[in-house]
Design a protein that fits this description.
This protein has 6 domains: 188 residues, Orthogonal Bundle (Hypothetical protein af1432); 132 residues, 2-Layer Sandwich (Beta Polymerase, domain 2), CATH 3.30.460.10; 82 residues, Beta-grasp domain (Ubiquitin-like (UB roll)), CATH 3.10.20; 67 residues, no CATH class; 57 residues, no CATH class; 75 residues, Alpha-Beta Plaits, CATH 3.30.70.260. By secondary structure, the protein is α+β, with helices and mostly antiparallel strands. The longest helix is centred in the last third of the chain and has 32 residues. It is an enzyme of class 2 (transferase).
Length: 695
């Protein structure tokens, strides 16, 4: 553990103007506040914040960041308050400490909810000052270094999974590769101990068997470059155990089948020398097609710059080579921290683009699970590059679609997307983008995000925006159903009411707005009796169930989106013209059934609503079963009947194959019951069809 004078001397070595007295006071404060607290290792607890501060000095961060590192656990683990911090160390330090501090343990929250709320607070603080992230990453790194002292295996695994899913990717996204690699390695050891032991053991064996081989290859690379007049530094190493494990898992190969175990780093004096070195290496050894990446001309989102290539060395050995300048190397290893030297006074040069996306996800996410899921997507590591027609570059996860691209450009563009062109060709919206694709989004002001998009988008930003729109539309449609139900309930009151009665009812039920009231009615959060009593106190309190006024008219269903406020039951597939009834359950919307549906008996726990089809209803999907003779052309004849009757086939499935018949179930878009009946009649009249029925 760093002694007090050692920590202060480290800071003064790169920042002679630092307030020595303030640093000493912060060190003493954390020692006193943590007092006799112990870590799982048995060490004094204050050794942890001191070591975190030491990590910050290695990055040469400013005085406020060092003090924040020393104090970052005092608010959570001692009686110290943020106000105490502000009084003693100033508002800037207090704000940073508050950002790093986790929320107090709230017993009523689940583990995922606590994790999500901690992450929410952390990301909001980070958006205001990125030093919060730097301290948090150092805090997590030191905790991972001492994780083995925790006795509970489950707790070690939980912390490791959180590190692997959240903090290591965050370190990668800000370019702090040293932190990322070490966190991944320590987490990998806990999550997959057998795989960790196997891979590290095999790497150690390779090191012993061919220890001189790495140095020999590095020397030959250096000689080849020096022979062309380049001054370079070359070093080699085995690849990171976790990256080897990921490659084995992704490619479904064994350790022996991984050919590029060795990686070499070439450091040059200038950017021009990087490209010269690349040309020399490609002339000297055969390069592997598809493995060259130019991150100098097109840096990664986190600012990482380098040339990557893979070569076939002697005896078909494959090696990876990274070529960069010394300055690029330093910035690549410590990323964001390299731009945050004390000289900058701790002032950010503006929000990072991906960080803005995270903040948008915070605003859009509905619950803990959704926040964690979308955040993990947003910080996912593997990226591709895609361009707008005007040449603007966007980085997206592998597997991203035009919808992901549209939301990356702007939320409004994503919401209005109706089509896309990739490299000038029209493509479906679910098409996966490739590296270097030029993407043009076709939009319409009348368009809106579709629920089905959630089945193929891969970015957290797109998923969060779509879900937010779906929730808003669902709420509006549930409120629309609630208003119709409210109007019907009003007709059953013993006397007429005015507009003021509704406003009074909203207040009596302690709801914020009339919209909230209608939503509560539509989602069955309040029942008819509560509504009546709120509108006219005393009108329903003493009415016995047998005398309770029943629904007097059916509620018309039109203009609502299936799957939002209501859904058409798949057991009976009701279409306009069928007599229908709705089953309403709290928080689940209204399920619409045909009145003769056998599944209605399962709705004893639901509130039954009398429904009717509005005269302007646009149609629905009907399902029928057809038995066709097993001979050539019968399926085509059935399809021809659908076409002649202007019915679109949504789904067709063969359910039975038994000579001399084939049985199919078909979902059709039809206008109404009469339309579906005509189709069934036409099928029955066909020589190709043995039997046809609606189901």
């Amino acid at each position: 553990m760093l002694r007090q004078y050692e920590l202060v001397e480290r800071v003064l070595a790169y920042d002679p103007d630092a307030d020595e007295a303030m640093l000493n006071r912060a060190y003493v404060f954390t020692v006193q506040k943590h007092g006799t607290q112990k870590r799982a290792s048995g060490d004094p607890y204050f050794s942890h914040p001191v070591e975190v501060a030491g990590l910050m000095t290695e990055l040469k961060l400013d005085q406020d960041t060092i003090i924040t590192a020393l104090l970052h656990d005092t608010v959570e683990d001692t009686l110290t308050t943020v106000e105490d911090i502000e009084r003693l160390f100033g508002p800037d330090v207090a704000k940073l400490v508050d950002g790093v501090t986790k929320l107090s343990k709230i017993e009523t929250m689940s583990e995922s909810e606590r994790a999500a709320e901690n992450l929410r607070k952390f990301l909001l603080a980070m958006s205001e000052d990125l030093r919060v992230l730097l301290v948090k990453l150092a805090d997590r790194l030191h905790n991972m270094r001492t994780l083995h002292f925790i006795r509970s295996e489950e707790k070690r695994r939980r912390i490791s999974r959180e590190t692997m899913e959240i903090y290591a990717p965050l370190a990668e996204r800000v370019g702090m590769y040293e932190y990322m690699r070490e966190m991944q390695l320590l987490a990998f050891e806990q999550i997959e101990p057998e795989a960790y032991a196997t891979i590290t053991g095999r790497l150690a064996a390779i090191r012993n068997e061919a220890g001189a081989q790495v140095d020999s290859i590095a020397l030959q690379i250096k000689q080849a470059l020096a022979g062309s007049g380049l001054r370079v530094e070359v070093s080699g190493r085995e690849k990171h155990p976790y990256s080897i494990w990921r490659k084995m898992a992704e490619r479904h190969v064994s350790f022996e089948q991984i050919t590029d175990i060795m990686a070499f780093r070439v450091l040059t004096d200038s950017e021009d020398d990087c490209y010269k070195a690349l040309g020399i290496l490609h002339r000297e050894w055969q390069m592997i097609p598809g493995r060259f990446k130019d991150y100098i001309s097109t840096p990664k989102m986190n600012g990482y710059r380098s040339l990557h290539t893979a070569l076939i060395y002697s005896n078909a050995m494959r090696v990876e080579v990274q070529i960069k300048t010394q300055d690029m190397h330093e910035r690549n290893e410590f990323g964001l921290a390299a731009h945050w030297a004390y000289k900058q006074g701790g002032k950010s040069d503006g929000q990072v683009g991906w960080l803005r996306d995270l903040i948008e996800i915070l605003d859009s996410s509905h619950d803990a699970e959704e926040l964690l899921e979308n955040t993990k997507m947003a910080i996912y590591q593997d990226r591709i590059f895609a361009f707008t027609p005007k040449g603007a570059l966007f980085q997206l996860p592998k597997g991203a679609t035009p919808i992901d691209f549209a939301f990356a450009v702007h939320t409004n563009l994503g919401a209005q997307a109706v089509g896309a062109k990739i490299n000038g060709r029209h493509v479906p919206l679910r098409t996966a983008l490739g590296n270097g694709d030029v993407v043009e989004i076709i939009k319409s002001r009348n368009s809106e995000p579709q629920l089905s998009w959630l089945g193929f988008v891969v970015t957290g930003k797109a998923r969060a925006a779509i879900r937010r729109f779906v929730r808003q539309k669902e709420r509006a449609e549930v409120a629309a159903i609630g208003r119709k139900l409210y109007e019907e309930i009003v007709e059953r009151l013993p006397s007429k009411i005015g507009k003021k009665a509704l406003a009074d009812a909203v207040k009596r039920l302690k709801m914020a707005t009339e919209e909230d009231f209608m939503f509560a009615v539509g989602s069955a959060k309040i029942d008819d009796r509560q509504v009546m009593e709120a509108l006219v106190p005393g009108s329903a309190a003493n009415v016995p169930e047998e005398n309770w006024p029943r629904q007097q008219r059916a509620i018309a269903v039109r203009g609502l989106t299936p799957g939002m406020a209501f859904k058409l039951a798949e057991c009976c597939h009701p279409v306009p013209g069928d007599r229908i009834v709705g089953l309403r359950r709290p928080e689940k919307g209204v399920e619409v059934h045909a009145i003769d549906c056998m599944k209605l008996a399962d709705g004893v726990d639901a509130d039954w609503i009398d429904l009717s089809w509005d005269a302007r209803t646009d149609g629905a999907i009907g399902r029928l079963r057809a038995e066709l003779y097993n001979r050539p052309g019968t399926l085509a004849e059935m399809a021809g009947i659908f076409a002649q009757n202007h019915a679109n086939v949504v789904n067709l499935e063969m359910t039975m194959r038994e000579n001399p018949f084939h049985t199919y179930e078909v979902d059709l878009e039809v206008r109404d019951l009469a339309h579906l009946t005509r189709i069934v009649s036409a099928l029955r009249a066909s020589d190709a069809v043995a039997q046809a029925d609606r189901i």
